[in-house]
Amino acid sequence: MRTQVAIIGAGPAGLLLSHLLSLQGIDSVVLEARDRAYIEKRVRAGVLEHGTMELLRETGVGARMDAEGLPHDGIYLRLDGESHHVDFAELTGRSIKVYGQQEVVKDLVARRLADGGDVRFECSEVALHEVTSDRPRISFVHNGQSETLEADWIAGCDGFHGISRSHVPGEDLQRLYPFAWLGILAHAAPSSEELIYAKHAHGFALHSMRSPTVTRNYLQVHTDEDLAEWPDERIWSELSTRLAGDDGFHLTTGEIFDKSVTPMRSFVHEPMRSGRLLLAGDAAHIVPPTGAKGMNLAIADVRVLSHALGQWAATGATEGLDAYTETALARVWRVTHFSWWMTSMLHRFDGYDPASTRFDERVQLSQLRYTVSSRAAMTTLAENYVGMPFDTGWCYS
User: Is the pTM of this model over 0.70?
Assistant: First the structure.
């Protein structure tokens, strides 16, 4: 079996890449380890940047997003109960939309299958071979049969725990944070029209949402936190304490139907290419979710990659593919910095001596107060949050 581009992973990166290639007449095959039901229910990111929304609309997969997504023109920063609104629309002329990653995946799967795309679920024993040659290939088992897929190029979109990154020699650069997020999904109406980022003496909290009837909330906890120590009543009580505001905020509660603890990390693998294998999305980089960037950065990667592969397919030229690492990493490091900055400014850092902890807290408070009082600083936050335009010079040529 042969194709032009073999794609490992049917997350947003792999599926969107396959869709973008199809629009250019380029054949691809997507191999996914999980079944369709699993990837369409897997809850991950939920905020779409302005550029991400525009790309989905322009390529014909944004209709349900526009119909069902929740538009947001800003966020609230809450400092020990004092609320400050960051108005994205007024500061940048752009906005965001809350629309779950699993919904994006549903839309992309439906479009690929409707277009006759080759998306294979439940593939096991996936292995890469000769990725630095002109004829890389993938062996795998599907429906009980051993198969081999030859391709001109392979896109590793299989996430941090996938097999692709191990085939790209390079350097893993990372920052591990001394805390995690306890995240919940609850059948409860949103308590605010926009997201609330709260810095509190007990630690960080975030109030978000997925729909008019489902909320997504987070609490900063220790990395080794035991979920058994967090019954629903304790979670709601702590969220209410950390999110309390001077605006009379009241947290709506309800049945919690999903609960997990996620350690925070920043991670970048350089380079993002080895021979005919190209990495995209979480296979190449991870950012803490404070800046709402993970899925958006993956989509930015495949936009660059689809253009480069389109150039190759049309002319045989590889200039775009040769520059892929440098081009993609320009945006990766900008987003990595923003996510680190938001994380460092809003979380409680323990584990140092008391004097250092107090020092760090004073620095954080100074940065937060400057951010909410300076239009220039607030604009910097806003333009990074809604996403730098794809045609920004330092991002893409």
Answer: yes
